[in-house]
């Protein structure tokens, strides 16, 4: 384990034992698809760099953020972006309350303000689905200043030393738009690919420990074939989602494989030709 990560981990968790690697990664459920991605993300976080996770739906971006949260024993505030996201959704809003018989205006702090003050992780999911004009309010939060002047209260907020920002995007999906360069340049960026091979097998077995070995192997074969077709450009990224494979496996323990794959994967694809291709791949493994 990188010394800077170990030092920060011990500081935040008040632990002094030597178990700072694989066991703690498993506590959050994320398995790194290569030998260095997990540690490189942690190094960036320890150095107070906002992290941007890029990858297809179901690749494990949210699971990675949750694992960082568990690793540092650090709560996480989440923002789910959409075209309706506004400054109040990020920073908070004013409301009228009654206290001691008097009517007062109180400010309810949003996830950004809470995370900055309390030293939590701020997880911004699908950041490229937000309207570009909404996010510049975060520029001073994401750069070296790590501060914010709340436009609703006038309060100047300086981030807690442990404050961390992790964002995630699905590139090229419907409803997304390219990130503003000024925003993108405030992040260090990591590609998060799908799991394959033994790593994917371990995830399937851990999620469904009572599943038969034959079922696990069949799902693995189907998953590998789906990924090949995604790489060949014949299927959408979501067809090879690990999340969808896990759903299919759960269903397949209680119904025929063809129906499980149809419900968990094929029916979620918009293109009729892609749906047919998925089912044809299943038929090569299930007689």
UniProtKB/TrEMBL annotation:
InterPro entries: AAA+_ATPase (IPR003593), ATPase_dyneun-rel_AAA (IPR011704), CbbQ/NirQ/NorQ/GpvN (IPR050764), ClpA/B (IPR001270), P-loop_NTPase (IPR027417)
Chain ranges of the AAA+ ATPase domain: 47-198
Short name of any one Pfam family annotated for the protein: AAA_5
Database matches in Gene3D superfamilies: P-loop containing nucleotide triphosphate hydrolases
SUPFAM superfamilies, sorted: P-loop containing nucleoside triphosphate hydrolases
Family per record: Belongs to the CbbQ/NirQ/NorQ/GpvN family.
Protein name, UniProt field: AAA family ATPase
UniProt source species: Sporosarcina soli
